[in-house]
Amino acid sequence: MPGRTLAIGDIHGCDFALETLLQNVQPVADDTVVVLGDVVDRGPDTRRAIDLLLELCKTCELKFILGNHEEMMLKAYHTGEWMREWLTFGGEETLASYGGSFADVLPEHFDFLASGLNYWETETEIFVHATLDSGVPPDLQTRECLRWERLQGDEPPHDSGRTVICGHTSQRSGKPLVFDGWICIDTWVYGDGWLTCLDTSAELVYRSKQDGSYEGPVALEHLVSD
Question: Does an H or E element contain 74, and which?
């Protein structure tokens, strides 16, 4: 029996929420965990969140999708470009979790961020950080579409017929946004929402908060229809 495909929405440095989620979901060797980007920034401990993901790599297969916050961080580190913007949008919290400067960031953490994928796909889903142009194959999408554009909630299904599973557009309701061909699981964990994990084949949701609160598994259809 094949393992689960587990998608995790934007973590944003919320280490306790991630730890709580992983302790309850308990990924195993046959599972594939797809992290949809924006692991860094805004929350209290980006460093520990990345440490938890590096440990998870030893347990199961992990696919890390590059988010716009990782793009800003890497650009600021390598060229100094976007430094002011990055610090304003959560970079200060990220650097503080390491000790205050880029010099304190562990090389293996930079390696992890630089390994990020533009997207990842299966026979039935396409996983991406932000959005996809419905008429364009995944490998021809622009970086603006992949990492920066906001989901409006009325996008047509992708021409491939596969479900697009994404983050980036934070749902202040704390619930996934689901419409024809799309599931968005950025549920605002760094605010007053949840960190969401979606078991894609079973359509089950697991979710946690930075204070250690946990709920799940809950049927996706029940959660979004409440």
Answer: helix 68-79
- Please state, in angstroms and rounded to a whole number, the distance separating the CA atoms of residues 110 and 20: 24
> Using an 8 Å Cβ cutoff, are 157 and 132 in contact?
no
Closest by CA to 15, choosing from 69, 66, 51, is 51
Beta bridge mates, 8 = 35, 197
How many of the other CB atoms lie within 10 Å of CB of 148? 15
**pTM > 0.85:** yes
pLDDT digits (tens, 9 = 90+) for 49-103: 999 999 999 999 999 999 999 999 999 999 999 999 999 999 999 999 999 999 9
Distance from C-alpha of 10 to C-alpha of 38, rounded to nearest angstrom: 5
CA distances from 125 to 117, 119, 135 (A): 15, 11, 15
Return the domain boundaries, the chain: 5-225
CATH fold, domain 5-225, is Purple Acid Phosphatase; chain A, domain 2 (3.60.21)
C-alpha 125/C-alpha 165 separation (Å) is 7
Query: 204-208 and 163-166 as β-strands: parallel, antiparallel, unpaired?
Result: unpaired
